């Protein structure tokens, strides 16, 4: 069955680049991308302070995401950036629950669920990351881990909210390691997530939600991965800062 889900390619720039390099990436890489924006979302996530300069430099349908938002609203919370302040500058997306936030900044599934709720309430769309660590996969716990992370988010959101959430399945052992999940390994978990969405929500939500894969996606492996039935695109780290990001976008645009 041909899916009607719009594909999605995200570029997570993490805490990389200077302003000059970011502007250069927009000019040389992003502005030369040509894709059918009715069929494909392309969304890049630079660091917060670069966003205004990059936003005004983007000349095509590439969108911007924040890499995080605060659990707090506006107020006396030094160093935080509230979800509605992201929305206020014209940004529509936020990445939440990335494994680097979970492992280096102590974000657990409960907190991620609460952040997802706050972001959605301000009108942001969410790229919600889930995925197992190597030891969890080796212990045979991949499905349980993914289920716990997803149900923590599901607890906080309504059926209607799922229209504004993209699930990013990112096995932690594949992030930044060069060890990409095989298309079969990725499809197996994506299929599990879609079935789980039927169980915890309903088949309409499960059929429509986009489930993207992240973990060492590059210009060479993206075509095969995107050919899998339940893979609706990618969240790309390292390769999103390189010319091959254009190949990844192309593999989805021509799928
Ligand atoms: C990521 O950070 O979400 C990611 C998938 O990184 P990489 O593509 O570098 O593995």
Describe the structure.
The protein has 255 residues and is an alpha/beta fold. It has eleven helices and eight strands. It has an eight-stranded parallel beta barrel with strand order 1-2-3-4-5-6-7-8, surrounded by four helices. Helix 2 (51-57) links the parallel strand 2 (40-45) and strand 3. Helix 5 runs parallel beside helix 7 and helix 7 packs across helix 8 (183-200). The longest helix has 18 residues, at 183-200. It starts with 6 loop residues before the first strand and ends with a helix. The model has no long low-confidence stretch (mean pLDDT 97). Residues 12, 170, 175-176, 214-217, 235-239 line the site of phosphoenolpyruvate.
